[in-house]
Structure formats: structure tokens, C-alpha cells
Amino acid sequence: MSFPHAHLLGIEPLAPGDITAILDLAEEYVALNRSAAKHRDVLAGLTQINMFFEASTRTQASFELAGKRLGADVMNMAMQASSLKKGETLIDTALTLNAMHPDLLVVRHPHSGAVDLLAQKVRCAVLNAGDGRHEHPTQALLDALTIRRAKGRLHRLSIAICGDIAHSRVARSNILLLGKMENRVRLVGPPTLMPAGIAEFGVEVFDDMKAGLEGVDVVMMLRLQRERMDGGFIPSEREYYHRYGLDAEKLAYAKEDAIVMHPGPMNRGVEIDGEIADDINRSVIQDQVEMGVAVRMAAMTLLAEGLRARRAA
Ligand code: ASP
Known about the structure:
It is built from 11 helices and 9 strands. It has 313 residues and is of the alpha/beta class. α6 links the parallel β5 and β6. α5 packs across α6 and α5 packs across α11. The chain is globular and about 55 Å long. The site of aspartic acid has 8 residues, from α6. Aspartic acid (ASP) binds next to α6.
């Protein structure tokens, strides 16, 4: 299996075959993760450093577990409490890290493009764990695996991505991935939360939930990204829930077997009704978390293979 990329910085540079390669390998890891002995030595001897400059629960835990299950030496750096507070630049941090000889660097950063910049300065494989509003590739990959398992395929599906599109790296990576795999993507949300020029991405845009959800196979809800808003994007959370929150009435417009997704963390009663989120017949939110570990194991395996091959050359 060959993966022709030195880093996983986004979905944008990936070909459909690269996406399928990651998902197919992740399937094997889903089985491993469900077995009693969850350990392989695929990354033995390699050092994985997780650098999160922005808070994370699921993603950081998932990358840590993924590395440990594959035998890497995993270190978490608490970047919020680090020398960045003392004024160190991202490039200085990169050079410091380089001197420690990491093999896999997992980075989350509040600025779009920061992870790409870092990747240019280090001699190891870099995985983007979310940069600003730009990309969150492993999230889109785990979403794709969840959809493929629930629907039996990852093409010619109708998928509605709903809510705060403008501030969401999850939306951006999903739009790119689902488009590459030839699905029909609809974006549903208030015009204030829709990025300018979005129609160029080959998506359909709706500002009404019922029209947007009509007949879709997948309903993907997004969190309101309060931390990235600097003004009045929505009238009030109550009003937002009324118009855009996923409840049983709005979900009834989707296909009868439509699945409900959310990347987490969820704001219950803001973008999604708690009962729907917990409904095991509709919601695959916990499956997304499970697929997250497997997809990260797969991505790190493929990058490590390339790294070893380049070093041996
Ligand atoms: N956890 C996802 C992210 O980091 C989604 C979110 O925060 O709303 O982008």
C-alpha cells in the first residue's frame, strides 16, 4: 500500500484513491480495536508528539490512543501552558522540536495555515489536527468511514451539512472529501453563517432546514463556533434552535433511514435536540468517535511507511 504524501495537512491534496486507502486500512484497525489485545508494533521505535495550541478532548485522546496502540512513544505537549506564552514563535517551537527528532507530529492550531507552515520547517510527518477554520482532515476521514459503514457506500449519497459552516474546518474538510467521492452536498444554515463564494465548491445552499433536509441520506450537524465569532451572527440561541436546531420535526424531512452526525463537542438544545443525539437508531455520533481512533491509526501507519522508505532511500 503506498501513500504518496509526506504529511496529512488537509483533504485538498488527497486523491480519491488516497482516501480509500486510509479508510480500508482503518477498517482493519476497527476490528483490532474491538478485540481484546489491541496492540500492534507498527509504529514501534517512532516518537509521536502531540502539540495542541487549542483545546481538544476527543481528537487529542484519539491520537494518543492511536499512537499507543501501534507502539509509538507518545508525548503530549501542553502548548497553552508552554513557552508560547513567553513569546516564542511557531518557527522557534518547530526548530526546538526538530532537535528532539520526532517522527510524527500531530498539531492543532487556532490559525489557518499554521500547521502547513510548521510542516515546512520540520523533518518528520505532520498531521493536521485542525487549523483555524481551514481543515480538519482526520475528522472528515472518520466521518467518511462512519458514513461508508452505515450506508454501505461513500458515493452518490445526499448529505446535508448544517449550521455554522462559515467558522467550521469540519465543514470545509467534509465538503472537499464528499465532493471528491462524488456525493451531493447541501449546506444548510443562516446566510450570516455561510462563507462567501461557497457555491464554487459545487454544493447546494439552503437557509431553510426543512427544504435542506428533504430526502437526504445523512444529516451532519455542526457546533456553533462561539470562540470564532466576533459579532452578532445569530439573534439568540433560542431563536437559532427554533430555526436550525435538529429536532424530530425537522429530521422527519430527511429519508426515513437517514443517519445523524455531529463532530462534538455538542451544544444540546442549541444545534441539536439531546434526544436525537442519543437515539441509537438514528445517531451515529458515538460511532464517529470509535472510527476516529481507527482512522488516525491508519493515517499514521501510512505516513510512517513513507517516512521509513524516504529515510532508507
Ligand atoms: N471538534 C471539532 C473541531 O475541532 C468541531 C468543533 O469544535 O466544533 O473543529
